[in-house]
Amino acid sequence: MSQDALDTVAAARAEYTSGGLLESDLLPDPIAMFRRWYDDAAQAGIHEPNAMVVATVSADFAPTARLVLLKGVSEAGFTFFTNTASRKGADLAGNPRCSLLFPWHPLERQVRVDGTAALLPRDAVDAYFAVRPRGSQLGAWASHQSHVVSGRDELQAAYHEAERRYADGDVPTPDEWGGYLVHPESVEFWQGRPGRMHDRLVYRRTPDGWRTDRLAP
Q1: What domain range includes position 173?
Q2: DSSP strand E in the chain: where?
Q3: Closest by alpha carbon to 139, among 159, 125, 168?
């Protein structure tokens, strides 16, 4: 990268002026607050407002992050589905603690969730897999996520084999395909403010319920 390009990156900034977040704006619990902000993101037309960064740590303490789609939210936590034999699945098997990040840039907002992931029951996994598009179901059989392949041709051949195998019926759930429920321990709501004096209000789980604190930006 040239020095001019580096200077351009260093100079890239925007002033955040869309609004603020006060303690009086908070709802009693973070799930209700998340739903309010998620509805705002959806109504604003943000592309895939359910896209979230999932960050995990491996057994040798190497962090990784990737985008995954949120598929459910309840009082129990946040749900997503994936190949459990993938890198994220291996990480979560060894260390179930993880972080989620929802980057709603057009609204100058972020939500970060820190918590612990647990595998969903098989009946819940099967129920969700059954309503996925057929192409995505076949793709789950064709792709052993995160594993090295020789090239695109290998993936296409595996996909066509799955098409042939299940041409006459429903596509069953692969054994290595599953889902996770992330049980939140803290949920932070971030709203941009002018002068980098951003609002950061965090809910933390305590034995007596949720406590909220303001963090310095």
Answers
A1: 15-214
A2: 51-57, 63-69, 72-74, 77-83, 97-104, 109-119, 177-191, 199-206, 209-214
A3: 159
User: Which CATH number is 138's domain given?
Assistant: 2.30.110.10
pLDDT score recorded for residue 6: 40
- The reply to whether 62 falls in a domain is yes
7 within a domain of the structure (yes/no):
no
Task: Please count the structural domains in the chain.
Answer: 1
Q: What is the pLDDT of residue 18?
A: 74
**Within a 10 A sphere around the Cβ of 123, how many other Cβ atoms?**
8
- Asked if residue 84 lies in contact with residue 98, where contact means CB atoms within 8 angstroms, the answer is no
Close Cβ partners of 178 (under 8 Å, ≥ 6 residues apart): 81, 82, 83, 84, 89, 119, 120, 122, 125
Task: Report if residue 6 sits inside a domain.
Answer: no
* Residue 10 within any structural domain of the chain: no
User: Which of the following is catalytic: 35, 36, 196, 211?
Assistant: 196
| Alpha helices (H) along 44-151 | 87-94, 122-130, 134-142
Q: Based on the residue annotation, tell me whether 196 is a catalytic residue of this protein.
A: yes
Rounded CA separation 69/52 (Å): 6
Task: Give the pLDDT score at 161.
Answer: 95
Which residues does the chain have with pLDDT short of 70?
Answer: 1-16
For 17, phi and psi rounded to 5 degrees? Answer: -135, 10
The alpha-helical segments, DSSP class H, found in 44-179 are 87-94, 122-130, 134-142, 152-165
Q: Which residues contact 77 (CB under 8 A, 6 or more apart)?
A: 115, 181, 182, 183, 184
